[in-house]
Amino acid sequence: MGNSKRTRARWIAAAAGGAALAFVAGHAEASEGGASVYLLGSGGPGAAIVPPIEGVFLLDTQYYYSGEASAEREFVIGGNVVAGLEATVNANFATVLWVPTTDLAGGTLAVGLALPIGGPDVEVSGTLTGPGGRQIERSKSDSAFVMGDPLVTAIWGWKSGKTHIAASTLINIPVGQYRKDKLANLAFHRWAGDVSLAATYLDEEAGWDVSGKAGFTFNGENDYTSYETGTEFHAEAAVEKKFNKTWSAGVQGYYFEQVSGDSGAGARLGSFKGRVAALGVTGAYNFMLFGKAPATLRLHAMKEFEARNRLEGEAIFLDFSMPLWVNMPPGAGS
Questions:
Q1: Which of 55, 91, 104, 185 is the most exposed place for a label (fewest CB within 10 A)?
Q2: Rounded distance, CA 309 to CA 74, Å?
Q3: Is the pTM of this model over 0.85?
Q4: Which of 223, 233, 126, 101 is nearest to 174 (CA)?
């Protein structure tokens, strides 16, 4: 490969790597139905790195979560008060990220749109109160392949030496396929917004990445169930070592806590503040797709513990990222 091609590949690879970590949305479990908009674990290595080049980037995340709560724990799902909850989620989040400028008040701006599609599978040991106040005491299961609410995001990032800082916002738009009175849903049927701040210290020569991220999610009311989820706090941290141009691996964890209680006529269990922590591992594989497009595969695996008013389980998700189009800066290809 000639010098100009190597230079171009480095630019695109840096942008693709940033795109893989810039999107901050997804699904986790807590609050109404034991579910939250923000994807816990997404603030891993490179959490504050934004693509350093104008262009359009693809990030596709395949997400798997399996969790449960004992029969003594109760949740409100789709207007039902249920006990003994077990849930499995297999979902895909396809995200397109656009970087229109790398010089907005000295920083880089990125905006994106994600669409979740997948198959939640939910089982409860008892439905204590159904829609309309009906009293039912029996086990029940539900599954579906549905489209969730689309999510839009905006990220504003800066770099100074080895330090990266990024402020981001996320909005959940309640127009997805919401199944009224059903247990299995990906859509939340409520407006929600998240604001987060991330920092990354990246020493490319030594190969170390130390990242942290924290934010709050503000939830609107589900007008069908009359349930308003409280404000949620999330914090994440990761340390990763890059062994060579291809492989890297590290550890990461997160902490989640609901800081204000649920409310509304549908909040039959009161404030229902949730909390959970997790530890896990992550690793990335960088390669050239079709011999010319830099791409990244990143695996996250998390084990939750200390859950309160939410499920406790394991999450595994695989990110694939690559540039779809880039606007090479002057001199980058020469």
A1: 104
A2: 8
A3: yes
A4: 223
